[in-house]
Amino acid sequence: MTQAPHVIIVGAGFAGTYAADALRKAPVQVTMIDRNLYSTFQPLLYQVATGGLNPADVAYPVGSFAARRQTRYIRGDLAAIDARARRVKLADGRELGYNYLIIATGVSASYFGVPGAAENTFGLYTRVDAIVLRDHIMNGFEQLSADPEGRHEFAITVVGGGPTGVELAGTLGELRRDMMRATFPDVDPSRVHVRLVEMAPALLMPFQPKLRQYTRKQLVARGVDIRLNTRIREVRPDSVVLGDGQSMPSDLTVWTAGVAVPQAVTGWNLPQGMGGRILVGPDLRVRGGEAIFAVGDIALDVEHPAPQLAQPAIQEGRHAAEQIIRLLRGEQTEPFRYHDKGTLATIGRRSAVVQLSRPAAQITGTAAWLAWLGLHLMYLLGNRNRISTLINLSWRYIAWGRGGSVIVGDEPSKPLPGDARPRGRHVIKSLD
Ligand SMILES: Cc1cc2nc3c(=O)[nH]c(=O)nc-3n(C[C@H](O)[C@H](O)[C@H](O)COP(=O)(O)OP(=O)(O)OC[C@H]3O[C@@H](n4cnc5c(N)ncnc54)[C@H](O)[C@@H]3O)c2cc1C
User: Would you please indicate which residues are annotated as catalytic (active-site) residues?
Assistant: First the structure.
């Protein structure tokens, strides 16, 4: 008996899971490989980082996902690809053969060579990043409470005024303004400083000017200090140095300014373009690789570049799976076309911006925020996660003034990045 063709999908994020879904009825055997046991819903990581959601709410076991689709799951880290022999090698030495390979491994932070950024900032790309950041934020607040004389302050800098930076800064502003009063009534909120630094002249650059202005006003109303046209020259353990040489205290710096493909991808011997993204042709096959597709954030079609967002990743994952089915039937592949349904970003409680493409429309405020909430619940994997997220977010935003955060650990889950020696007047030194 001949075996069904073997499709390997590496990466169980948006692109990989939608590719697996589209192959569930195809006459193929599918293996999913991911370095984690779970798939992470990145758009809600900032809620984990600010204590609104539990880490498990945004994670779904890849094993369960795969089992329901008659798909094999292997936990592993892709280390090398032999395109000629159609084999992949994992970091632990295991090797697997494939007929078709879909690469959907996403991206990570890009520091653009800024000195100290990699060592002295927190990221927000993985579930672990969100937990580490959350513990340091909450401990920062707690340290203020342990200092009733008010000798210390707590300065948080968010670098990058894209959707992630805006939602994080907005929620931190709300924590400072509303939650602290309930949880740490002895702390004067003016001892907490939330700063958002952006190199461009506006926040949320891909959005229409009206939505950008709304975003700015909403952040200002939450007490966020916005610095536009401001480049970060260097990040130190206790401060950031701006392009003009000015140094500003920063106990906790979060880097959301850009993404790039991890360095390890260069070892896969595939053609790479801007930001290290893997170059694909119109049908999403890797240039020069007959049987390899790249989809989601990691892929780049220079003729029709798609934004690095969840919707393009979902649509590309499905498209790659459909092309494999076409190839197995002996049919020609079809080019990928991204159907842009619109973009949205949230700022905080009952505050978001929605930019629809067809019909062209802009929505702000509570309606936009409810649309944001509904869409996120719809795309989360797993009913349990949908229910727990709905309950936790409802609790956070309804019981807002009463301190609606989830319980966090007693100690930071990981030491601060960079220099851990006591420094300056800032509270974080007491966490060393
Ligand atoms: C904080 C944050 C907030 C965001 N908010 C939004 C939003 O509101 N709306 C929106 O549209 N988009 C948002 N995005 C972007 C969106 O999450 C990404 O565009 C989307 O996740 C890309 O999907 P992907 O499948 O390409 O990669 P990912 O979802 O990143 O999945 C990649 C998978 O590959 C695995 N992996 C990586 N390397 C390897 C390897 N070597 N071997 C094995 N497995 C590997 C990872 O563990 C992961 O499971 C946000 C991103 C972040 C970081």
Answer: 167
Token pair recorded at residue 27: 């006459």
Which residue owns the Cα nearest ligand 1 atom 5? 43
Within a domain: 43: no
> Which tens digits make up the pLDDT trace of 338-353?
999 899 999 999 999 9
DSSP states along 62-81: HHHHHHTTTEEEEE--EEEE
Ligand 1 center–CA 40 separation, angstroms: 7
- Whether 312 is in a domain gets the answer yes
Q: Is 14 in the pocket of ligand 1 (CB under 6 A)?
A: yes
**CATH number of the domain that residue 224 is part of:** 3.50.50.100
Domain end (from 328, 361, 377): 328
Instruction: Specify the pTM.
Output: 0.93
Check whether residue 356 and residue 255 sit in a common domain.
Answer: yes
254 lines ligand 1 (CB under 6 A): no
What pLDDT does 420 receive?
A: 36
3 Cβ contact list (under 8 Å, min separation 6): 29
Predicted confidence band of residue 204 (pLDDT cuts 50, 70, 90): very high
pLDDT in tens, 234-243: 999 999 999 9
Q: How many domains does the chain have?
A: 2
Q: How remote is the CA of residue 14 from the centroid of ligand 1, in Å?
A: 7
Task: Determine phi and psi for 354, rounding to 5 degrees.
Answer: -125, 130
- Domain span holding position 323: 6-35+76-107+261-328
What integer pLDDT is reported at residue 134 of this predicted model? 93
- Do 359 and 249 lie in one domain? The reply is yes
Does the beta carbon of 15 sit less than 6 angstroms from any atom of ligand 1?
A: yes
CA–chain centroid gap for 224, Å, is 21
pLDDT attached to residue 166: 98
Phi and psi dihedrals of 373, rounded to 5?
-65, -50
Ligand 1 atom with the smallest distance to the CA of 297 is 26
Contact 94, 76 (CB under 8 A): yes
Is 52's C-beta closer than 6 angstroms to any atom of ligand 1? no
pLDDT score of 308: 94
Cβ 45 under 6 angstroms from ligand 1: yes
Helix (H) or strand (E) holding 91: none
Q: Please state, in angstroms and rounded to a whole number, the distance separating the CA atoms of residues 24 and 21.
A: 5
The finding on whether 104 has its CB within 6 A of some atom of ligand 1 is yes
Measured in angstroms, how far is the CA atom of residue 17 from the centroid of ligand 1? 11
Asked whether residue 183 carries a pLDDT value surpassing 90, the answer given is no
C-alpha 390 – ligand 1 centre gap (Å):
22
| Encoded tokens for 219 | 């952040």
The pLDDT value given to residue 426: 37
Mutate to test the pocket of ligand 1, among 105, 375, 389 (most ligand atoms within 8 A of CB): 105
Establish if 158 belongs to a structural domain: yes
